[in-house]
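re: the backbone from monday

yeah here it is again, tokenized this time
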């Protein structure tokens, strides 16, 4: 599947933000900790959700979906093995290992999907599970983890890890006694997960701060008292805001949480882009000129690494030199080679830094999508470029952006899905 894009057209109108991919996947995994049905609303209909649904069904969960609401029952849970053919397409599948281990006392999961944005190690997961009393056997296929009894522990993350924090919160939820997680991730999706578990019978304190305490239930399953409503996807909102800044005559982004994208709004301001901020919407348009901006990606609330590639496309239009410092992942700047083939002037300095000189006119061409966030950057670049582009491997984009071509056409974009 590919996208055929004809660039150079100005965009205008309104676009709604869908539920957050990096929140719904964790709520789906958390359903394994529950007795009875877990309902999740405002679900984005994206490929990663369909893969997580397959993994849950593989271990015996029943998952029903209607009008963006998932109802998950794990009463007939029988499996404890994550299927390689699915988990290798979904890095986030590892978050399912924590709840399965906590509930079944054992889990087998294959080496996580090779992600093109770095080697994506899982040492903080393994160290955290060991600290709670689990035994880990590494085989040629993956990891077999067993724990007769999971006990609370005091664990310091050697590196801030979003899914590491979420997975160990979920493992600690059913452990015996209190767990303290130190140097934990501050992302809003972590707090949303903790709030949901707090309302279901686990005492969790400090989510959203570097130190989180979990009073485990000692094995008693949780009970959902209300649905988990998925928050707006801050990365989708940010991607559309950048698109509006690059090509918009006036684009309004609805159903978002402006507070979650303040680092981007601040960087756009420095680039000379005016952003109007409402209660649950933001609005922007293309300025007369873009000023160069140096950005450094950081853990939340810093500039999100998932918006680094889309922002790089904007910087190719700035009057002068900008530096991007990708501090989170070591392999997340590879996409610049494709932008250079489109005419961008980008000099890689080291695995973490590039210098972008602008403004440069981009030419449309055939491009292949390495990961979903670079994929969205290529869509923005193709819509900006002169002439026609064909973007390959759009499964990567469909993993995290629902019906993106259809929604962008509503803004006036000339983009269509072709074989
Ligand atoms: C989450 O990935 C997100 N994915 C990523 O979004 C996001 O880019 C990332 O957080 C950072 O914000 C999901 O939530 C499903 P990390 P995660 O563990 O948790 C190193 C997207 O496009 N590390 O916070 O996998 C790691 O290599 C995706 O939606 C270890 O060294 O990222 C990285 O350098 C891409 N050992 C750093 O920590 C470990 O055991 C942060 O990674 C785990 C991580």
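seq for it, each position gets an aa:
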């Amino acid at each position: 599947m590919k996208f055929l894009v004809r660039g150079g057209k100005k965009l205008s109108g309104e676009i709604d933000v869908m539920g957050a991919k990096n929140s719904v996947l964790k709520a789906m995994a958390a359903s394994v900790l529950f007795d009875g049905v877990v309902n999740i609303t405002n679900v984005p209909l994206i490929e990663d959700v369909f893969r997580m649904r397959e993994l849950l069904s593989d271990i015996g969960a029943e998952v029903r979906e209607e009008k963006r609401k998932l109802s998950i029952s794990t009463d007939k849970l029988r499996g404890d093995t994550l299927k390689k053919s699915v988990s290798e397409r979904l890095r986030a599948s590892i978050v399912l290992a924590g709840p399965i281990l906590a509930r079944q006392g054992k889990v087998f999961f294959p080496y996580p999907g090779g992600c093109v944005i770095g080697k994506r190690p899982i040492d903080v997961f393994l160290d955290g599970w060991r600290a709670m009393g689990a035994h880990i056997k590494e085989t040629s296929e993956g990891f077999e983890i067993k724990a007769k009894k999971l006990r609370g522990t005091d664990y310091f993350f050697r590196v801030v890890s979003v899914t590491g924090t979420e997975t160990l919160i979920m493992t600690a939820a059913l452990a015996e006694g209190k767990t303290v997680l130190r140097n934990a991730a501050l992302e809003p999706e972590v707090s949303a997960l903790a709030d949901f578990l707090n309302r279901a019978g686990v005492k969790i304190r400090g989510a959203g701060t570097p130190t989180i305490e979990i009073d485990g239930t000692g094995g008693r399953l949780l009970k959902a008292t209300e649905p988990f409503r998925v928050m707006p996807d801050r990365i989708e909102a940010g991607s559309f805001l950048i698109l509006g800044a690059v090509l918009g005559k006036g684009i309004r982004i609805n159903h978002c949480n402006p507070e979650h994208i303040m680092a981007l709004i601040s960087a756009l301001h420095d680039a000379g882009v005016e952003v109007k901020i409402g209660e649950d919407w933001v609005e922007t348009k293309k300025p007369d000129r873009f000023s160069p901006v140096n950005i450094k990606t950081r853990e939340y609330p810093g500039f999100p690494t998932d918006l680094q590639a889309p922002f790089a496309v904007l910087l190719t239009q700035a009057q002068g030199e900008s530096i991007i410092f990708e501090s989170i992942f070591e392999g997340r700047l590879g996409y610049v080679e494709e932008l250079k083939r489109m005419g961008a002037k980008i000099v890689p300095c080291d695995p973490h830094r590039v210098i972008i000189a602008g403004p440069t006119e981009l030419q449309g061409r055939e491009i292949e999508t390495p990961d979903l966030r670079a994929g969205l950057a290529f869509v923005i670049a193709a819509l900006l470029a002169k002439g026609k582009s064909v973007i390959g491997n759009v499964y990567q984009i469909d993993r995290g952006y629902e019906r993106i071509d259809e929604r962008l056409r509503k803004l006036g974009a000339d983009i269509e899905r072709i074989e």
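The chain is about 30% helix and 25% strand. The mean pLDDT is 96.
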